[in-house]
């Protein structure tokens, strides 16, 4: 009897439909461990398997004679989707969709970052595929594969298809109104969510661009219009100065004024923050494009697009921008970055923003390479020389300088390490990050010294800020989280993760002052405009002058689910909807019911829609 049962079990397991279903259960569970660790495993299987069965039923109907090969191909496709979801989540904290395919060309440039996120057990998801490929060299296996070319009972397959399709549609329909992509994917199932993303993107309604007015934006942000800009604090105090917008790679705010075993991590930035304008509650607003997104947001005061990188989605458009505004004031403009200008479609982005010149890898050469470009020391040395040449024309300049040596995964060459870490930091991402940022700080000091030597220091204003976070919570091990807890004196949460520094440094003009109000990258353009005495009253922008306006609402779109926002008390992250969301207050304060409101949640989403509408309807550049 037991032998008969074993034979029957063997017959069932030899059916591709059953065998590959079991494999999918294992892979769904693996994805759940990484991405939805607090979710029910049964929920993931109950929502994930029906969408798999829909595909399997199609194979049974359409390819009965070659079913093993087709099952293997579909298995490879689904496995790759799960693998991509796991890897993407480990860095961005969101669920990848088909929109990320446009980024495939960037992977070779950042392969070091990709491999650093790759835990060996993630590759377990491909074990069955490797095994089958090896078995294909076995003649008996190929012969057995041919015996599978039979049709399963039509009624059974039809019944499974109808039920599975119904469950999948119901899962999507029930959770379609949730704004939180993580919760959608958790409750819909990953494959169902991928299908939903295609449909939602194709049917998304665009706000009428005529509704995008300064008045509409101000109302949503809760600020007043109509005030005389010349009556603002610090109006025109830096009028006519050269502008150097210094964007620091992966620099977070916790680094400033912090020591490890008595040694300062960023002594240069510490001194600047104590002698000039410093904004400690400043937050990133980037998306898939990371560094290039920061360039876009800072120069345009628009929000990032809903899915792709700004440089790729908006690079073909004629973008209203700070370089264009200042060119009308007699400024010359340039941007400096040691990587190839083709990376992240920057060549088109710089045309869209309106920079007169760009300086990339061709200009900086191959000296003193760190990761995929010359070191920050080379960047600053050659940039300072070029800025001096620009100043000799008699016209002020607006320049953006993009640092890169502290790029993820932060394992800078030994020759660049200047910070000795305690043993507990050895071999950790946190330790590598601190050493890389210490080098970044050192290089900034070299830049400042050269600006002083060539006479530009006293004639310029430096806007210094981080482009995006360096240490995603999702990527850290328990030991690394404990190191961050040691640094902060509390758990490392979203309000710490997205916090980047902003300093405005104008020798002889900016006094030591800490501004406690909340700000984001979208606010740099209007804040700088106020200091330069340039009005933006008729210029559509979504930021605000954070020197003079102290209440803020900053929608977030990446690293956190849609519907997240930063206000004056902390960061709000929705659940399925607003009601089951969580607030992460600033500075480790205990959360309260008054930290956020549903009105703020609605206004943040509407601000994103207005920005999407306005930018997507702009004309193309030449």
Describe this structure as you would to a colleague:
It is a single chain. The radius of gyration is 27 Å and the shape is globular. It has 23 helices and 17 strands. Strands 1, 4, 5, 6, 9, 10, 11, 12 and 13 form a nine-stranded mixed sheet that branches. The chain has a four-stranded antiparallel sheet with strand order 14-15-16-17, with helices on one face. A hairpin with a 3-residue loop joins strand 15 (565-566) and strand 16. The protein has helices at 2-13, 16-35, 41-62, 67-92, 111-117, 127-135, 139-146, 154-174, 181-188, 190-203, 214-221, 267-275, 291-300, 310-314, 322-327, 346-353, 361-364, 376-391, 429-453, 478-488, 494-497, 524-532, 598-616; strands at residues 242-248, 259-260, 263-264, 277-283, 332-337, 357-359, 369-370, 373-374, 397-402, 460-466, 499-505, 513-514, 519-520, 554-555, 565-566, 570-573, 582-585. Helix 18 runs parallel beside helix 19 (429-453). Residues 110-115 have low confidence and may be disordered. With 622 residues, the chain is α/β, with parallel strands linked by helices.
Give the helices and strands, then pairings.
Blueprint: H1 2-13, H2 16-35, H3 41-62, H4 67-92, H5 111-117, H6 127-135, H7 139-146, H8 154-174, H9 181-188, H10 190-203, H11 214-221, E1 242-248, E2 259-260, E3 263-264, H12 267-275, E4 277-283, H13 291-300, H14 310-314, H15 322-327, E5 332-337, H16 346-353, E6 357-359, H17 361-364, E7 369-370, E8 373-374, H18 376-391, E9 397-402, H19 429-453, E10 460-466, H20 478-488, H21 494-497, E11 499-505, E12 513-514, E13 519-520, H22 524-532, E14 554-555, E15 565-566, E16 570-573, E17 582-585, H23 598-616
């Amino acid at each position: 009897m037991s032998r008969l049962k074993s034979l029957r079990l063997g017959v069932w397991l030899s059916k591709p439909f059953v065998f590959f279903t079991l494999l999918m259960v294992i892979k769904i569970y693996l994805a759940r461990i990484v991405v939805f660790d607090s979710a029910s495993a049964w929920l993931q299987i109950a929502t994930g398997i029906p969408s798999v069965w829909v595909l399997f039923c199609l194979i049974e109907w359409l390819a009965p004679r070659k079913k093993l090969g087709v099952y293997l191909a579909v298995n490879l496709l689904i496995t790759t989707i799960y693998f991509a979801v796991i890897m993407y989540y480990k860095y961005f904290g969101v669920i990848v969709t088909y929109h990320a395919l446009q980024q495939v060309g960037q992977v070779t440039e950042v392969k070091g970052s990709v491999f650093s996120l790759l835990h060996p057990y993630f590759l377990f998801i491909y074990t069955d595929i490797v095994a089958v490929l090896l078995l294909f060299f076995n003649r008996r296996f190929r012969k057995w594969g041919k015996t599978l070319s039979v049709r399963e009972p039509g009624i059974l397959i039809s019944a499974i298809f109808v039920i599975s399709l119904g469950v999948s549609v119901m899962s999507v329909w029930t959770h379609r109104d949730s704004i939180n992509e993580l919760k959608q994917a958790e409750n819909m199932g990953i494959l169902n969510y991928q299908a939903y993303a295609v449909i939602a993107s194709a049917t998304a309604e665009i706000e009428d661009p005529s509704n995008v007015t300064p008045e509409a934006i101000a109302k949503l942000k809760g600020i007043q219009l109509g005030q005389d800009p010349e009556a603002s604090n610090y109006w025109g105090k830096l009028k006519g100065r050269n502008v150097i917008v210094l964007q620091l790679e992966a620099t977070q705010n916790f680094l400033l004024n912090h020591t490890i075993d008595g040694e300062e991590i960023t002594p240069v930035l510490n001194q600047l923050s104590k002698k000039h304008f410093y904004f400690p509650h400043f937050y990133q607003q980037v998306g898939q494009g990371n560094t290039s997104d920061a360039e876009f947001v800072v120069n345009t005061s628009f929000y990032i697009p809903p899915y792709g990188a700004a440089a790729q989605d908006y690079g073909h458009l004629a973008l209203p921008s700070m370089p264009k505004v200042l060119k009308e004031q007699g400024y010359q403009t340039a941007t400096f970055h040691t990587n190839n200008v083709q990376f992240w479609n920057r060549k088109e982005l710089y045309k869209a923003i309106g920079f007169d010149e760009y300086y990339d890898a061709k200009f900086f050469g191959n000296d003193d390479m760190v990761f995929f470009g010359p070191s920050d020391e080379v960047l600053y040395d050659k940039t300072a020389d070029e800025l001096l040449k620009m100043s000799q024309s008699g016209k002020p300049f607006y320049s953006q300088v993009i640092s890169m040596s502290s790029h993820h995964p932060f394992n800078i060459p030994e020759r660049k390490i200047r910070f000795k870490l305690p043993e507990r930091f050895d071999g950790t991402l946190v330790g590598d990050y601190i050493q890389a940022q210490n080098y970044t700080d050192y290089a900034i000091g070299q830049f400042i010294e050269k600006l002083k030597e060539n006479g530009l220091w006293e004639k310029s204003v430096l806007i210094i800020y981080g482009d995006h976070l360096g240490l995603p919570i999702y990527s850290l091990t328990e030991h690394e989280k404990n190191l961050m807890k040691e640094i902060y004196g509390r758990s490392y949460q979203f309000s710490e993760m997205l916090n980047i520094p902003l300093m405005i440094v104008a020798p002889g003009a900016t006094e030591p002052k800490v501004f406690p109000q909340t700000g984001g990258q979208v606010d740099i353009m209007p804040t700088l405009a106020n200091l330069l005495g340039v009005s933006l009253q008729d210029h559509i922008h979504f930021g605000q002058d954070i020197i003079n306006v102290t209440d803020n609402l900053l929608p977030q779109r990446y690293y956190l689910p849609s519907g997240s926002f930063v206000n004056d008390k902390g960061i709000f992250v929705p659940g399925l909807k607003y009601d089951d969301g969580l607030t992460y207050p600033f500075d480790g304060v205990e959360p309260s019911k008054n930290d956020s409101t549903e009105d703020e949640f609605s206004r943040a989403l509407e601000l994103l829609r207005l920005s999407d509408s306005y930018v997507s309807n702009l004309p193309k550049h030449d």
